[in-house]
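Running this now, will post back.
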Amino acid sequence: MTDKKIITISREFGSGGRLIGKRLAEKLDVPYYDKEMLDRISEKSGFCKEMMEGAEMQAKNSFLYSLASAMGNGEMGPESLSLNERLFLAQFDTIREVAEEGSCIIVGRCADYILRDIPEATNVFIYAEEQDKIKRAVEQYGVSEKEVKKLMKDTDKARANYYAYHTGQKWGEPVNYHLSLDSGYIDIDDIADLIIRYTEVKKNPQR
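Update: finished.
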């Protein structure tokens, strides 16, 4: 068995997925990629970081996102793809490259799907009950109490639509992940320990 550990974190807004990812990276002493992944993608592809940051949230309206993603320029080759498709391909290539380099923690960006065929990858989905997510978003993320429910709904809707469009699968569906955890009942430090333990005992069955 290899000691290489690649952990992807998909998460509902307010569930603490980013905090869990950071704690995992600290405990394992491995690179952490969230916003940092955008820097890598931008450097590799030349796409503007701000443009990539907004791409996922554009999927809040699934119809408009699908329409924009389907509109290439009618030519053959990579240049014929829409901007959204080219952004995703750049993301795909960079995430595969990062995984080849060694152990790491990757938050979001459809990394679970992109690395689905890599035995060393453990895909985790973090969720929580609404009241727990609201509490964390307000107290730890600094989100206004007036805006938190709308932001939570819009963010998760965008993530779900973006994931569905680019993977053909349902975001948050348990079968797409090795481990799903409700972060409302366990401290972040304990969640990180639990995920690490899972990677240590996880089997890689023949498919």
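The longest helix spans residues 148-167. More later if anyone needs it.
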